[in-house]
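Hi there. Long-time user, first ticket. I'm pasting a complex I've been working with (about 512 residues overall). I'd like to know whether the download I got is complete or cut off, because the file seemed smaller than I expected. Thanks.
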Amino acid sequence: MEWEPPTPDGQFFDGPSLARIKALFSRIFPARANEGVPGAIDAGAFDYLDHLLVFEASVYREIPKWRALYRHALPILNEAALHHYDTNIENLTADQLDAFLTALSSGSLAGLPDDFGQIHFFSTLRQHCLQGCFSDSRWGGNADDIMWRWLGYQYDREDFS
Amino acid sequence: MSFDAPDVIIVGGGAGGSTAAYALAKRGFTVTVLDKCQTYQAEDFTPFDELHFASFGALTPSPVTDPDVYVGHSGKPRKVNRWWVGNMVGGASMIWESNLIRFTKEDFQVRSLFDTPPAGSSLQDWPWSYETFEPYFERAEDEWGVSGKAGQTSSQEPFRAGYEYPTPPLAPHPSTQFLQDTFARAGMSPYLGPKGINSMDRDDCPECMFCGFCQGYGCSITDRAGSNSRVLNKAVETGKCELRENHCVTRVDHENGVVKGVYYKTDPDGPEHHMTAPLVIVAVQAIQSAQPYWALPHVSYQGCFRSLVSGSRALEFGPRLCAALGPGWTEDSLSIATHIGQFTAARSLHD
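Hi, the file is complete. Here it is re-exported in full:
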């Protein structure tokens, strides 16, 4: 029997949290319009994560852990943004987000608890961003198959400038 | 004929167990294959989905409920996802890339290749030679429908004069010429590898359509060989072989050093059942196959396991020679270092 993809049922993040995920994703896989490359925002990668985190462990055993991780880590990360830039993550400029994410990715973002697990959280965030960009749109990301159209997978290749 | 008291019990319907089942059933033995999983059909592997089938590990055993337990030099046990095993009848042969290279002459004489055996290992030469096995390689290549070409370069294993694979090699990938040229410049002798993937229609299985969802995925049209579509189905068709799904063998039953049968469960929380047969074949991959024998007297696999976790590349040859395409781990990093082709690679280097 053909495998049936799970149907998204509800959303995980509240408005401010989703805006923060969206901001972080926007700089993990940014669009490069001059090269015709669409980005995580164009692909709606944040929608993928928003739906994924609602699924049961039967879809994937790590999902409950991810729920707990985002619940725990996102507020702390936002506190760090307030501490460093005096504003929420969603209001940071592209340059500020880049510096913020670069520090997080190497475990050197100041002001976080020692046991935060910066590198682990960044790698989870990055993984979900890329999955939301490039996975089958049945999972809620890759809106209108935009990344597949850009790659030329299942479609003729297109530029998105 | 009774499947309740068969001539042979085979534990595991994967590449080894199913090939044995077919060989024995053809010779008139009654065979019961016990497999702890269920059968998947080709269409179960559609629609293609990288997240579900690969990233989310839908086709491999859970590292929580069915792990390998890895103990590195730290001594701390860790549960590991056995990503090279399929959680379905057919096992790894349902999700592999079906690289069906033969063992080489050197694989049979591995102890003799070392002046002194690596410390802590228990390397042995096999009691048989490549030549003894050659007819069986040929038979397996026919049953599994291997596509390939004999005698391409000196780095291939020797073939009987006039022998050719059942079907020609797969159409080259766009990168093939580049790779061949590059390796040749480095003084090696690359060749198109034999694969259990159909380069043309054969029996009831079609030619490969190069979908790209290969290793780690199930084959959606059975062009890639799995034990179900190549040997187990034929074994069952003889009327002499029965497959019992959801039968998880828990122990080997033995008395005075002689194996009498097996114990199994059909429900994790249910009772153990018992089944006897004059011959029991345990074919559930290298490590798992050895586990039931630990209970038997006079059998020590300690050396094999020690060499598996040694972290030394030379020592890793030991178990891998017994298990083509078996994975090895490097020291404590848990990075997987699978070596394909056993000593074939070493021979290429020296030619």
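A couple of notes from our side: The two ends of chain B are 54 Å apart (CA to CA). The interface with chain A takes residues 41, 43-47, 49-53, 55-58, 62, 64 of chain B (CB under 8 Å).
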